Amino acid sequence: MREGIIVMENFKPKALPVLIGSLPMDNHRKAAELIFEYTPDIPLWPQLPMFAKEGMTEQFMPGLPGLVTSNGRSFLDGGKETFDDEYLAFFEAYLAAGEAEADLESSIFAFTRETGKGFREFLRQVDAKIAEGNCSFTALKGQITGPVTFGTAVKDKDDRAVFYDDNLREIIIKKLAMNARYQAGEFSKRGAVPIIFIDEPSLAGFGTSAYITITREDVTESLGEIVNAVHSENGLAGVHVCANTQWDVLLESDIDIISFDAYSYFEKFILFPEKLTEYLKRGSLLAWGIVPTQKEDEIEKETKDSLFSRFKAQMADLEKIGIDKKMLLDQIFITPSCGTGSISFNAAKRVLELTRDLSLKIRQIHSL
């Protein structure tokens, strides 16, 4: 039995609040403090895209063989003079990282000083709370950019997406998998269940002409390697898609958590009732992205009561297709629909407030 299954048998989120990652801030200490204030049970490290090195691709590129940065553009060059040596060194590091007692903190799979400011500040605050006996968390959450999103955004020297190059695709998947394992391992050391979300906004285009050559197997196999890396640290792996996608692909996968935009795409998500029922019955979880993040006027108009009414109606729709209400309430997180890095600080803070307050109302009403 794989590790993720064992964890899921004992881990029921019961509508606890969880965030998606990015915040519109330029201070990692204050960002982490804000996260602990609003989501103390399952906090996450802050990703601050105001810093160029914390963008969805730049944050995970260091350590890749063939990496070239020129005129502000980073890309992978398989024809680089030193590529063969870098390629060999990468796989030697990868094999060493796979050893049971490997310390990934000193490997190329750890964040660098520039890319890991939010992660290391978060761990510092976690450690301080543990030392003070002032920690209430049951899980710690991290995130990586997913292989499809990363592999179609990162280009080679000819401006071709590296996902379409078999050798380069293998490299990026292994790099992301080990970065996920690195995070999960650091959380495990601190006695918490690791939760790692694989952020895959590009899966919204899966099945369209833009990604016509990417197959179902490409998606499941690339995600699967990262999921296995998280499971090796006894963690839970989630996939976050902030729009619509072919949900049946994820529902049939080994993903432990599916994070979806319940505010805008709930009707699309429930188009696979039998697969959704099977997914939940095997203990898998849902991150219910019911707090809007895309439009500031929507964020402003919503209240915890209006969102609760929406949530109640969605629960009723699922009961109609035969999904047990108690099972569902046990197996969901309450989350924003996406990250808040691209909206104003005031709007982002309101998203955090709505997420916390809606979660509390759901848990109080249903005695969770």
Detailed description of the structure:
It is a single chain. The chain has 368 residues and is α/β, with parallel strands linked by helices. It has a single domain (3-365), classed as TIM Barrel, CATH 3.20.20.210. The chain contains 14 helices and nine strands. It has a seven-stranded parallel beta sheet. The radius of gyration is 20 Å and the shape is globular. The mean pLDDT is 93.
The spatial strand order of the largest sheet comes to 1-9-8-7-6-5-4
SS content category: alpha/beta
Helix content: 40-55%
Q: CATH topology, what is it called? A: TIM Barrel
Name the average pLDDT.
93
Please give the count of helices.
14
What's the overall geometry? globular
The overall number of domains is: 1
Whole-number radius of gyration?
A: 20 Å
The CATH class designation is: Alpha Beta
- Unreliable spans: none
Distance between the termini: 28 Å
What proportion strand?
5-15%
The largest pleated sheet is described as: 7 strands, parallel
CATH A-level architecture: Alpha-Beta Barrel
Order of helices and strands: HEHEEHHEHHEHEHEHHEHHHEH
Nutshell version of this structure?
With 368 residues, the protein is of the alpha/beta class. It has 14 helices and nine strands.
